């Protein structure tokens, strides 16, 4: 690697450490205020109190500010950028995030509207007798993937679907006992997260996709076109595995683990059989 590559990697690690340390310190500081009056006696009670009372929003803002400050100081100190160039780069990054923030705010607004209209209760009452619980993970995964692909953001997809899927999973798994009901809830949430990430990373308008193609110096359309087959293969295998386990074995963890192994082998076999290699020209 060149000296510039080492400098960039070194700066990235330093920024991550500073921002991470600031966030952790902020979580502890804001979470332990009033701890002496809480009556927490054990370590578990202290951690529970801290997590329930911490101000994560302010803490993340402090961490981001410290990370930006560290990046500016290191870039200016090593004469990679002048102070003015570093500040302009930070402002440019903020401008680039405006579209994502607008989409996220609109998604939150849509989530508030659906909550006010009791959409979750309506869907639960309509689908509880029509949608088999075994089909819930795959259905939610596909819906989340389509929304994330169309909007280009996983966070907005999660903000829209989580308030809808959680009550629906609880309603569908209400007749189950113990761990099975919990498994239905966790399966629904996991499907939202997985589908949102999958759709976001495949979407040509996603910030992660755009930044990946820019950072690697690759044509954006070529990047999207070449990564789609791999992502679709994994998503397809995961969907089939989910349907197989939920339909035949329910919430059996051993069956799920075995299907993960089978899915990995299937992906390897498909890539080895159908995939080809291309020599660098």
* C-alpha-based Rg, rounded: 23 Å
Rounded mean pLDDT score: 76
The count of helical stretches stands at 13
The largest sheet is:
none
Please bin the fraction of helical residues. Answer: over 70%
* Count of extended strands: 0
| Beta-strand residue percentage | under 5%
Shape descriptor: globular
Helix-strand pattern, N to C?
Answer: HHHHHHHHHHHHH
What's the number of domains? 2
- Spatial gap, N to C terminus: 21 Å
> What class do helices, strands and sheet pairing give?
mainly alpha
Low-confidence stretches: none
Features:
single chain; 281 residues; mainly alpha; 2 domains
Detailed description of the structure:
There is one protein chain. The chain has 2 domains: 1-96, no CATH class; 119-281, no CATH class. It contains 13 helices and no strands. The protein has helices at residues 3-31, 35-38, 43-53, 56-77, 83-96, 98-116, 119-127, 136-151, 154-172, 179-202, 207-215, 220-248, 253-274. 81% of the residues lie in helices and 0% in strands. The protein is globular. By secondary structure, the protein is an all-alpha fold. α1 packs antiparallel against α4 and α12 runs antiparallel to α13. The model has no long low-confidence stretch (mean pLDDT 76).
């Amino acid at each position: 690697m060149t000296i510039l590559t080492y400098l960039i990697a070194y700066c990235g690690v330093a920024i991550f450490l500073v921002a991470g340390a600031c966030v952790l310190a902020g979580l502890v500081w804001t979470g332990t205020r009033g701890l002496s009056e809480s009556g927490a006696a054990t370590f578990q009670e202290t951690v529970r109190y801290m997590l329930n009372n911490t101000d994560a929003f302010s803490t993340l803002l402090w961490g981001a500010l410290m990370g930006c400050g560290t990046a500016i100081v290191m870039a200016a100190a090593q004469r990679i950028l002048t102070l003015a160039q570093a500040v302009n780069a930070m402002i440019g990054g903020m401008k680039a995030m405006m579209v994502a923030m607008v989409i996220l705010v609109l998604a939150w607004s849509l989530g508030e509207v659906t909550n006010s209209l009791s959409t979750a209760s309506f869907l639960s009452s309509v689908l509880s007798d029509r949608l088999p619980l075994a089909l819930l993970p795959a259905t939610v995964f596909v819906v989340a993937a389509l929304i994330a692909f169309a909007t280009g953001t996983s966070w907005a997809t999660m903000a829209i679907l989580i308030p809808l899927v959680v009550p629906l999973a609880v309603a569908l798994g209400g007749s189950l006992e113990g761990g099975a009901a919990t498994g239905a809830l966790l399966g629904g949430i996991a499907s939202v997260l997985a589908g949102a990430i999958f759709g976001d990373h495949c979407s040509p308008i996603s910030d992660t996709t755009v930044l990946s193609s820019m950072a690697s110096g690759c044509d954006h359309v070529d990047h999207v076109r070449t990564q789609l087959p791999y992502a679709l293969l994994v998503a397809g295998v995961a969907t089939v595995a989910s349907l197989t386990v939920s339909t035949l074995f329910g919430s059996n963890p051993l069956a799920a683990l075995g299907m993960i192994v089978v899915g990995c082998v299937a992906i390897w076999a498909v890539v080895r059989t159908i995939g080809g290699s291309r020599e660098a020209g």
